[in-house]
Write a structure and sequence with these properties.
Length: about 70
């Protein structure tokens, strides 16, 4: 029995949806396409003064406090 470990990918961006923008929507599309093949997480800035973690469509998104 082979113990295969999934590749882990951390995407670092400026913002992530629902924040509007072309780079944000591209990052979301990229994560959705990679999700079946690798473990994907996203690290972006927050508009708020606190750090939050959430799962959006199966993608863990950490928004760091500004």
């Amino acid at each position: 029995m082979i113990n295969e470990r999934r590749l882990r990918v951390l995407h670092v961006g400026k913002y992530y949806p629902p924040h509007p923008g072309g780079m944000e929507s591209h990052l979301q599309a990229l994560c959705q396409e990679l999700k079946p093949f690798v473990d994907v997480e996203v690290l972006v800035a927050s508009d708020e003064s606190r750090t939050t973690e959430e799962v959006i469509d199966g993608i863990k998104v950490t928004r760091l406090a500004t």
